[in-house]
User: Fold these one by one.
Assistant:
Number 1:
Amino acid sequence: MKSTLIVLAAAAATFPSAFTAMAAKPKLNQYANLDDCNNDRNILFHAAPVSGRCYNLDGRTGAFFWATGGMLNPRVYSGTNCNGVEDPLSTNGRCIAKGSYQSFKMW
């Protein structure tokens, strides 16, 4: 047991961003604009996304932030209910303008 903890501690020190991403909880925050998103203020909606579930972006949303929480396939869609053109997102969450995106899903 002690050797397993030592190995995990060494791995976490070597690859801290990977362990932080795995330990973080998934997040989908919606904001009225990119400035609010970048400054994490005036949040419109917050969700803790569940794997495989589609989330429609609200009409008031101008920008959104996601964190994968270890899920590796974040996607946005041009249509509601995860229909239409699908675009992959980075597994490193960040704020982006909503643009023409209407829905979001990850797994």
Note: Residues 4-22 have pLDDT under 50 and may be disordered.
Number 2:
Amino acid sequence: MSEKDQLSEFSREIIAFQRKNDLTDTEMALNSHVSVEHIHNIKAMRETPDQTVVASLRDYMEHKPTGK
């Protein structure tokens, strides 16, 4: 899988997670400790996130507590 395909898949995962949990980019940024700019750029496929950003977002998405 190419880097662009992987980025596109991760972008879709973020968007699906936000829809499912009714989260804005700002809420996700605050809760995951990843800047809102990174989230915007990843979703727009303008940025390839480094592994620490990916790990932070995945950890939040896998372990999100009840509520926002």
Note: The chain has one domain: 3-61.
Number 3:
Amino acid sequence: MISDEQLDAYRLSGEKVRVVRDAIPENDIRGIVVAWDDTHVLIRRPNRNVVKLDRSYIIQPSREPRISPEG
């Protein structure tokens, strides 16, 4: 699970992140971190929709190569 400090750094910088949910790259969510609590994170997508996701997913900067959830 991603730390509060890392989420806060993403929020303050406004950096686009990628949320890897499964092995299919098309299912990734990209956007900026808006808020979070103990179990969820809110991501604002480019179309301004907000998505509530589990914090156990892989959250990484969008500019970095994709990390596969299988290992």
Note: The chain has one domain: 4-61.
